[in-house]
Inverse folding.
């Protein structure tokens, strides 16, 4: 199947040969080819160029279509590098408690929060969990997500964590988009354990090697936070994972600045995620990581800030410091019950002061790099998957955040096939 997209108002993120990520001032320069064409064959991007060089497809040529994109942009599909897609039930009941004045921490202290999700997940049969998660996956694909990381973490026992990771493995086999599996072993301390250190030992000694040998994980994660896991627990997990050749993506600085960012950079983590609160020392540590083989990507999760009423990650400041800011959803039943990356991009501009191209780069090329999927997705480049979004007619990309509640994604293409938005 061949498709020619023509008269594209702006082809966003087009590189003949793309870098794996962009940082700092480069993010404003995420390329846009104006008045362009794009050719797709067999689910892959083949070529693109200005309309003055547009190839001809004769009317009625077999197995080919021409899509006129007048007034519309083509944008690489969103690359959501942080989600907790596998859970049993929502937590709308707790939300009512929040409206009545309880904080996230107070709900957790009553046995709600992650422990509540874990109780429900432990009871749910694997097939039902798979079906529910597949529905969520297909829903986000329709919203324009073209690559996704999925974490475990609502199991809190070896058996239940394995169930989640098996669900993710089964999803990988049927998913139209590439997926990465993260073993979030250290998410909360189950009541059977005395303390976070003992549970971390169980995760490291009993779960990690087993899940690795069963091919169930790509990354590890820990919730490094007061009342959850300490820097020392997190470091032990990162070291154990690294010895098995596994990189880390760590929840850090959601509520408190503990020094976890520096610890993660020192252990060469692939990303540090949340960062609702950030110190100047954290920024210096992230800058130092730019000298490593790969940087430690700062991943902001503005839906969580929005939903919990937390501060927004100082995204403007991180980009101005020269860093490769990344945006993701954090989709989960407790702190961000949404997988809508377009909303994330809007909040990037509305709440973090990002220019539209900076927010788009953070949600595409940098999201792909934070999942090590740059060779497949994240930009419009020959040889990559034909995963992209066709927008509504727009005068400029600033209409993405400007059109607050209006749909800007008109169609979604996955491996060259149209998925109606
Ligand atoms: O990323 N902060 C840790 N984990 C999730 C939320 C967990 C939950 O409340 O269910 C997050 O926000
Ligand atoms: Fe999260």
């Amino acid at each position: 199947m061949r498709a020619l997209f023509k008269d594209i108002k702006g082809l966003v993120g087009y590189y003949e040969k793309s870098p794996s990520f962009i940082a700092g001032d480069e993010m404003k320069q995420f390329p846009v080819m104006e008045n362009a064409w794009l050719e797709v064959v067999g689910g892959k991007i083949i070529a693109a160029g200005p309309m003055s060089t547009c190839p001809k497809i004769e009317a009625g040529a077999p197995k080919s279509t021409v899509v006129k994109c007048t007034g519309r942009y083509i944008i690489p599909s969103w690359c959501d590098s942080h989600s907790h897609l596998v859970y049993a039930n929502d937590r709308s009941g707790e939300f009512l408690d929040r409206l009545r004045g309880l904080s996230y921490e107070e709900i957790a202290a009553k046995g709600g929060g992650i422990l509540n999700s874990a109780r429900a997940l432990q009871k749910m049969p694997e097939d039902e969990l798979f079906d529910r998660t597949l529905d969520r996956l297909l829903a986000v694909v329709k919203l324009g997500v073209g690559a996704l990381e999925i974490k475990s973490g609502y199991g809190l026992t070896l058996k239940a964590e394995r169930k989640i990771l098996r669900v993710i493995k089964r999803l990988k086999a049927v998913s139209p988009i590439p997926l990465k599996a993260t073993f979030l072993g250290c998410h909360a301390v189950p009541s059977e354990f005395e303390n976070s250190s003992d549970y971390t030992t169980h995760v490291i000694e009993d779960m990690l090697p087993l899940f690795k040998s069963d091919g169930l994980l790509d990354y590890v994660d820990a919730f490094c936070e007061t009342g959850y896991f300490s820097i020392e627990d997190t470091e032990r997990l990162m070291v154990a994972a690294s010895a098995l050749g596994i990189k880390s993506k760590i929840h850090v600085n959601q509520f408190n600045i503990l020094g976890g960012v520096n610890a993660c950079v020192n252990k060469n983590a692939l990303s540090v995620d949340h960062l609702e609160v950030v110190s100047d020392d954290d920024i210096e540590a992230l800058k130092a990581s730019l000298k490593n083989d790969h940087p430690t990507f700062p991943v902001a999760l503005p839906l969580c800030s929005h939903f919990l009423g937390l501060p927004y990650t100082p995204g403007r400041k991180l980009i101005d410091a020269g860093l490769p800011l990344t945006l993701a959803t954090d989709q989960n039943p407790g702190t961000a019950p949404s997988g809508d990356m377009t909303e994330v991009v809007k909040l990037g501009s509305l709440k973090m002061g990002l220019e539209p191209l900076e927010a788009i780069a953070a949600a595409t090329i940098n999201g792909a790099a934070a999942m090590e999927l740059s060779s497949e997705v994240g930009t419009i480049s020959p040889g990559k998957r034909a995963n992209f979004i066709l927008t509504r007619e727009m005068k400029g990309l600033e209409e993405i955040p400007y059109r607050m509640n209006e749909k800007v994604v008109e169609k979604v293409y996955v491996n060259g096939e149209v998925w109606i938005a």
User: Anything to note?
Assistant: Residues 135 and 141 are 10 Å apart (CA to CA).
